[in-house]
Amino acid sequence: MQATDGKAPGWGALIESGIGRVANLDASAKTWAGKAAAKIKKNDPKVWIKVANELTQRLGGAHNSEFRTWLYDQVGQLRPTKRDLIEALLGWGCPIATTNYDEILQRATGRPVVLWSDHAGTADWLAGRTDAILHLHGHWATPASVILGSESYARHSGDERRKLLQQFMALGRPTVFVGCSDSGLNDPDFAQLAAFVTEWPDVAERRYWLIKHDATTGAPPGAQLDDRLFPISFGSTNDDLPIFLRALAPASAGLRRIDRDVERPSIFGRDDEMEAVIAAVTAHGTALIAGGPGMGKTTLAVAALYDERIRAAFAERRVFISLEPAAEPRELLSRLADGFGLSATGGTDALLEEIEAFAKAKPVAAILDNAESVFERNHREAERLLRLLAQISNLALVVTIRGDAPTVSGATVISDLPKLDEPAARTAFLDVAGDRFSSDPALPKLLSVLEGHALSINLLGARAKSEATLLGLVERWNAAHAGLLKHPIHGEARLTSVSASLRLSMESPRMMGSPDARRLVGILAQLPAGLAAGDVSILLGGDLAPAQAEDVADCLRQLHLVERRPDRRLRMLTPLRECAKLEVPLEESDLGRVVSHFLAIATDAGRIGTNTWEKVRASVETEADNLDPLILLALQKGPVDNILEDALDGLGLYHSSSGRAGVSSLAVAHKILETQHNPAAIAGSFFRLAISAPSSLDGNKKALFEKALNKYKKINDISGEAYCLINIGHLYRASNLDAARANYEQAKLLFKQLGNADGEAACITSLANVARVIARHQDAINFYEEAKSLYQKIGQKKGEADCLFGLADIARTQGNLTVSKNLYEQARLIFLHSGLSVGEANATFCLGELARLNSEYDAAETLIAQAMNIYQRVDDALGTGNCQFVLGEIALSRRNCDEARNYYIAATTFYQRVGGVLGEAHCLKGLGDIALILSQKDDAYALYEQAKYILSNFGNPIAEAECLMSLGEIDESRGDIGKARLAFETAVKLYASAGLLDEEASARARIEELD
After folding, report:
1. Would you report the helix, strand and coil content of the chain in percent, each value rounded to 5?
2. DSSP letter, residue 216
3. pLDDT tens per residue across span 566-608
């Protein structure tokens, strides 16, 4: 109670509060509550335990949330506001156990919790292998561990292993009871232990009971020799207890060397920061290392003091001082003095004199770790004392602090310790996990989600040790996220758990004094892409003025809970954000507002490619990565309504057009919609799934469109039917042009029937694409011009760009390369401004092809690489395969046969994924060209024959003609003139049908040469 200035309830008061809670929850329990309250006043521990058992049952039992909520309200929120007693206890340097359920000692010392039910943890505690707080009667956060009523006492007293460990402690080490009342020592658990001790009078160590006693009231209780209990009076008031304990504390062990207290850490990617700290320390100056939770501030400081240059300069006079958590600025001095082996008592002036005299004798270097504890309590005084310390000659200081660094004249300041870059993160992970993962294909993905967060990299590395491959760890991360961000062996503490580290920031005075800042963390925890500073007031709601919202955002910036970004956007690193989801749940009052905000943006995302896209583009593209998570959050609230369906439609269309934003919410929504039995909604859901699905050989995309088509037919939704048909046509276009054309024609009739000019124009454009592929160029041009006119009338920019793109293709085929380039550029510009990534990639690819045809190979490679990056981002296998193929063509033009072969083989793999038979044929032809260059004529001939067969069957006359020309050349070289002539004559006909007059003339010339 003293550590909380009397706020902590005693045993009786705690039970009385539980009785009151039961009465408030259950009106029928009033009579019981009155009788139970009367029993508590009897001051009989046995009666109290019985009542406690009754109230536990009435609160639903230890596993009920009401029981946990009551414990949290009564003891879970307690904070150590008075530190003198705790500091005195720590001065003894002995293991500490408590019968309390609160975490005052944990908050004051930073030590983890060990429960008696954790037999292995208790054994480690008894053996001195862990520096934890042992909870004899449980901890509020684990309600099932709490010993309160008779049932829980009986359950724990029946635990034979627990009993054995208790007995071992009683026999093996002296014990001091601090703050235990007479009724506390009559607790059944202790009474059972006392009975055991009486059986071992010749072995059991003494147990000391510190009691408050006023000499004027008579003699204190005498010793109870049988159970080895010796009462000792510490004074007449509670304030005498810390003084008494300090007087009996063992003398200081002298200078606490860092290499006796703290292990030398591995450190990577901090070369510049290390050199800065080392330079400051060797100059007997001060280095300040600031940053967010888990960024590696302590690691950097300790690693620096282990550097050979600092070891040579200071030898054993290198000290590590933890200020976690300190109660007042004076502890900057008292803890430093204690670390030097000096007296830690007296005022600030006396402590400064002691420290100065110690440093004057010989230079000394010290780390003051986690200094935010003192700065948050009184920043001005803490800064004053730190400045005075910094002025002491021969005293070098390294101060780590989460949040902003204090102002100290002449100090070296690392104001925001950055994330580890990719090479450093990789090395740091492998240093912990082991080099066997160095070539694991899942390593880049794992490191990308950790975002260079030093503590998270270390913790996931520790977990990887038990994995055969990293794929399993990635799958566990996808399922558990924050649950993995703690050490698999060590307890929950700042350096072993990201949640524990984050918790220190969340419980800081700065954060506790700003409820809106805590709410904002709860919101940011749901936003992978973060939040624009200007939207803070919108999402927090109420009457929060922009200036107040900026203050709230500044709170998070000052605590370094968000990244420092030039655009001032507020974003938490993924590991911190995932832990914040658990530590700071989104408040119910904010949930609806946040969800509504992002559903509106998701709906606007469906305007991509339209003439109104520019109005919403900035907000959609900025928030793209937030849309899917917030829709998932909305889906947890209830049924899928019209607003949510609009958002889902927008997300699906945006993803299919740009390749951006996740779409996992579409599948979740589909499962929910199937339970709502709304045919129209289910049909729309199938269509969304189809639109967003990647094109692949397994036909999943086509199957989804066909399911949607059947659903639309059943409910007579003609528009839905038409859109399914045109999309199915697109899927056929790579392998079955007749099927594609039939679907387009059917869809066109339906759109015309509905008066849907956009849909009708899309069908006409698709028919133009088919005509272009089979070299009916004039038909294609007519189709494109007709569709472009329709698109321009309705202001549909995407469609207009598609038509320009098709016309550019025809101009290129007909040899009008300048016209073709201009048309591609026009189309690319529209695609780019409309946010249509796939169209942009296609146009960029074709410009690269034109550069290749003009032998501008460097420019071509640059453009093709740009296009391939986009294709890969949107998981477009066909586009990626085309890029690989063209890179092969460029390599072949440079006679880099090995490089070209690799590109063709890679392209074939992508074509096979999507059933791109024509693409495979072109690769076969390219491989034939390589074989011909290498004079491997038999291999070349076989490859050309395979390519020609495919090209002939799938109607690609130009490429077929090229194969025939190569086959004719080989036939001629073999002396088979008749066969060569037939090949050249067939090529002439194909070139003529395609309107390629120059190629036709060249083929005729080869025939004449045969004569």
Report:
1. 65, 5, 30
2. G
3. 888 999 999 999 999 988 888 888 888 999 999 999 999 888 8
Q: Collapsing DSSP states into helix, strand and coil, what is residue 96?
A: strand
Q: How far apart are CA 783 and CA 771, in angstroms?
A: 9
Using only the alpha carbons of the chain, give its radius of gyration: 38
Q: What is the DSSP letter of 435?
A: G
Collect all residues with Cβ–Cβ distance below 8 Å to 409 and sequence separation of at least 6. Answer: 387, 390
Tell me the pLDDT tens digit for each residue of 204-235. 666 665 777 666 566 566 556 555 666 777 77
| Rounded-to-integer distance, Cα 585 and Cα 581, Å | 5
Percent of the chain with pLDDT over 70: 90
499 has pLDDT over 60: yes
Of residues 491, 569, 556, the one with CA closest to residue 529: 569
Strand arrangement, sheet containing 395-402: 318-322, 364-369, 395-402, 286-291, 412-414
Residue position matching structure tokens 């030093």: 454
Q: Compute the distance between CA of residue 307 and CA of residue 314 in angstroms, rounded to an integer.
A: 11
98 by DSSP, 3-state: which? strand
C-alpha distances (whole Å) from 647 to each of 602, 644, 663, 742 are 5, 5, 11, 32
274 touches 303 (CB < 8 A): yes
- Check if the beta carbon of residue 277 is closer than 8 Å to that of residue 296: no
Dihedral of alpha carbons 716, 719, 720, 723, sign = positive
The residue type found at 562 is: V
Nearest Cα residue to 207 out of 263, 169, 164: 169
By the 10 Å C-beta count (0-12 exposed, 13-18 middle, 19+ buried), 349 is classed as exposed
Q: Give me the pLDDT at residue 264, please.
A: 92
With contact defined as beta carbons under 8 Å apart, do 184 and 49 qualify? Answer: no
- Assess contact for 369 and 322: CB atoms under 8 A: yes
Structure tokens at 57: 């049952």
Cα separation, 797 vs 793, whole angstroms: 10
Look up residue 642 and give its amino acid.
N
Query: CB-based contacts of 482: which residues, under 8 Å, 6+ apart?
Result: 498, 499, 575, 578, 579, 581, 582
> Residue-wise over 271-289: b if at least 16 C-beta within 10 A, else e?
eebeebbbebbbebbbbbb
Mean pLDDT, rounded, of the chain: 85
* Burial class of residue 912, CB neighbours in 10 A (0-12, 13-18, 19+): middle
pLDDT tens-digit profile of 913-967? Answer: 766 778 888 899 999 999 989 999 899 899 988 888 888 876 678 888 888 998 9
Tokens 């050199």, residue? 275
pLDDT for 414 beyond 90: yes
Q: Please report the beta strands in 125-248, taking only residues with DSSP state E, as ranges in sequence order.
A: 133-135, 175-177, 207-212, 229-235
**CA-wise closest residue to 163 among 132, 192, 201, 202:** 192
* CA angle in degrees (0–180, nearest 5) for 518-519-523: 120
Q: How far apart are the first and last CA of the chain?
A: 113
HEC secondary structure over 583-640: HCCCCHHHHHHHHHHHHHHHHHHCCCCCCCHHHHHHHHHHHHHHHHHHHHHHHCCCCC
Other beta carbons less than 10 A from residue 29's beta carbon: 18
Q: Cα torsion at 973, 976, 979, 980 (round to 10°)?
A: 30
- Provide the pLDDT confidence category of residue 697 given band limits of 50, 70 and 90: very low
| CA angle at 812 for the pair 809 and 815, rounded to the nearest 5° | 155
Q: Give the tens place of pLDDT for each residue, 159-181.
A: 776 666 666 666 667 777 777 76
Tell me the backbone φ, ψ of residue 876, rounded to 5 degrees.
-95, 100
What does residue 286 show for φ and ψ, rounded to 5 degrees?
A: -125, 135
Burial of 144 (0-12, 13-18, 19+ CB in 10 A): middle
Contact 528, 577 (CB under 8 A): yes
β-bridge mates for residue 286, sequence order:
397
